[in-house]
Design goal:
Layout (H helix, E strand, L loop, with lengths): L9 H11 L4 E5 L1 H12 L9 E6 L2 H12 L7 E4 L4 E6 L2 E7 L1 E4 L8 E4 L2 H6 L9 E3 L14 E3 L4 H6 L2 E2 L6 H4 L2 H13 L2 E2 L1 H13 L19 H13 L2 H11 L7 H5 L3 H6 L1
Parallel strand pairs: 2-5, 10-11
Antiparallel strand pairs: 1-2, 1-8, 3-4, 4-5, 6-7, 8-9
Helix pairs in contact: 1-3, 7-9, 7-10
């Protein structure tokens, strides 16, 4: 699958380095796969060169160092290892890469940070937010062919391609919002950027979760007692929404879905909110 703006040999360079350092599986995941399918299959305009997210079964750190060793610091001028998370950020030929070890996770309590441990590629896809972001392009490691991308394997375990065709956002499982309410903010971000609506089951999950309020902390309680997903991560998602997305559309979606109640019931009930913000 062609990725506009990506150097022709970039993925083959990563493939060769992965094979050299003992990585057993390598896949391109997330937004690049989603946007490439939207562009090629559904004729969306290309939205610009993305960061590339790659998941490995093996050591992301070893892969990153093998890339710098083989390509040199001119081609890999930046490399940052986040050892506790098994992730590495680096730049290769002007493209930003996020390398991550395949992992699985579970939430000990609603809105708390997940417990993460190494896992298979399929389990890594299962922990993602939406079906359209759980698509992966597995890059074969057992071929010498320069045209190895012709042998790429698209993994779609949750019906992401169907949701792309219908321009819908669907959560991967029925406890998605309960586990991590920041996924509601992310839905508004993607909805505004891509012009997507919620799948009916996703809209119902949001309605049910907000009505039941499954979190121990409530709006008005001491902020220092809020679990991470209702404090730090919620703020981060809001900052991204306001800085990077068409925020009037995103806030309109949030209010339509009842999501501003996560922040303040008064904002949710304000029928003139967007007009006043515009002013």
């Amino acid at each position: 699958m062609d990725l506009p703006g990506i150097p022709a040999d970039l993925l083959s360079t990563i493939r060769d380095a992965a094979r050299d350092c003992g990585v057993t599986r390598l896949a391109l995941v997330g937004g690049a796969v989603r946007d490439a399918l939207l562009h090629h299959e559904h004729h969306d305009p290309w939205r610009g060169l993305p960061d590339l997210d790659l998941v490995v079964e093996g050591s992301a750190e070893a892969l990153a160092h093998r890339l710098r060793e083989g390509c040199g610091e001119e081609r890999v001028p930046q490399l940052r290892v986040h050892g506790s998370y098994g992730t590495v950020e680096l730049e290769l030929d002007g493209v930003l890469l996020d390398l991550a070890v395949a992992r699985q996770e579970h939430y000990p309590e609603p809105a708390f940070n997940p417990v993460v441990e190494p896992g298979l590629l399929e389990l890594d896809l299962a922990r993602r937010d939406f079906t359209v972001n759980a698509l992966a392009l597995e890059i074969p490691l057992d071929t010498e062919a320069l045209s190895f991308l012709a042998q790429e394997k698209l993994l779609d375990l949750y019906g992401g391609q169907a949701h792309l065709a219908h321009r819908q956002l669907a959560f991967l499982h029925e406890a998605s919002i309960k586990d991590d309410p920041t996924r509601l903010i992310r839905a508004a971000r993607y909805g505004a950027r891509l012009g997507f609506s919620l799948a009916p089951e996703a809209a119902q999950q949001i309605t049910d979760a907000l009505a039941a309020w499954p979190w121990s902390w409530h709006v008005g309680d001491p902020p220092e007692h809020a679990p991470p997903a209702l404090a730090t991560r919620l703020r981060m998602e809001l900052e991204l929404l306001l800085a990077r997305e068409p925020w009037p559309q995103a806030l309109h979606l949030l209010q339509t879905w009842g999501g501003l109640g996560l922040l303040d019931p008064g904002l949710q009930a304000d029928g003139r909110l967007l007009r006043r913000l515009g002013q």
